[in-house]
Amino acid sequence: MNSNSKDLSFYKKNGYLIKKNLLQIKKINKINNLVKKIISLEKNKKKKIKKQGGTQNYKNYHFVYNSNSSKNKQILRLNNPQNKHKLFFKLSRDKKILSIVKKLIGNSIRFHLGKLNFKLPNKKGGDIAWHQDWAFYPHTNDDLITVGIFLEDCNEENGPIKVLPGSHKKAVLSHHGKNKNFIGMIDPKKNKDFVKKSKSLTGTAGSVIFFHCRTIHGSGLNFTSNNRPLILFCYRACDAWPLINDGNPHHDANFENYEQNIIFGKKSLYPRIRNVPVIIPLPKKKHFVSIYQLQKNQSI
Fold first, then answer.
1. Beta-ladder partners of 128
2. Quick one: which of 127, 159, 218, 295 has the most CB atoms within 10 Å?
3. Is residue 8 classed as helix, strand or coil in its secondary structure?
């Protein structure tokens, strides 16, 4: 069995894949230099923060903050870095990354979303509760994948993403709270069992992780002093059509933009429909907000 077949077999069985040192450090260093400039510029801006940064959409360039304090800005996320910076756009179309994406979900690929996350030290960043990406944006089929690019070495100390191997082949769990609203997290009563069965996705800078949209995952606290950056790009098969508008490229919001996000494959108005489990992420108190805003101060 060649490496391509091994990767596909492993991914199909476990719902994730780690490719160590996939990207050259020279490329990672360029990105890190740009990230430092972006963060420095944003922190020096004198503007009021409301609702942790408010809402995002497919065409904006949008920061999410840990609080509404403008004095000491704590940035949790930058949505759509590829919309403004060529370096991020090129990275989202990187040949090495896309060759693996094609291997795992097929030759027809549409770009879905991009974000740059920061895992703030200790309780500032907090943990990200267990969840499935599929719960946020169900489609007509589940050929969707998330790609994570390590900009720094990532180990157990700085709160790596943890996944539950094989969970992508099981049920889609409820992400609704006591008030029946969608809150983007699975019942915390399952935490102990999940932690026991979980696999930490660690690696050096330049390593890249891939995981299925239905794979259960989350992350713990960052016990280092850095902000552990992680770039996330999501891709979907061209014939996987969204069932709701999640604030990312969507045919109802802007059909032309939706079609422009096709990287490989042909345009088609015929969605591929598969018998996959779906729970619609409604109702919501907050629309088009980040997982940080959805999960904050919630209970199930």
1. 219
2. 159
3. helix
- More confident of the two residues 235 and 297: 235
CA distances in angstroms from 171 to 39, 60, 69, 189, listed in the order given:
39, 33, 40, 17
pTM value is: 0.96
Reduce the DSSP state of residue 192 to 3 states and report it: helix
Per-domain residue ranges of the chain = 3-106+115-236+272-295
Q: Write out pLDDT tens, residues 192-235.
A: 899 999 999 999 999 999 999 999 999 999 999 999 999 999 99
Q: What is the largest CA-CA distance in the chain?
A: 57
Q: Token pair for residue 167?
A: 């969970």
Q: Are 22 and 208 in contact (CB under 8 A)?
A: yes
The residue type found at 166 is G
The tokens of 100 are what?
A: 């693996």
Q: Contact at 8 Å (CB) between 98 and 265?
A: no
Q: H/E element holding 98?
A: helix 95-105
Token code pair at residue 156: 């157990």
Domain 3-106+115-236+272-295 fold = Jelly Rolls (2.60.120)
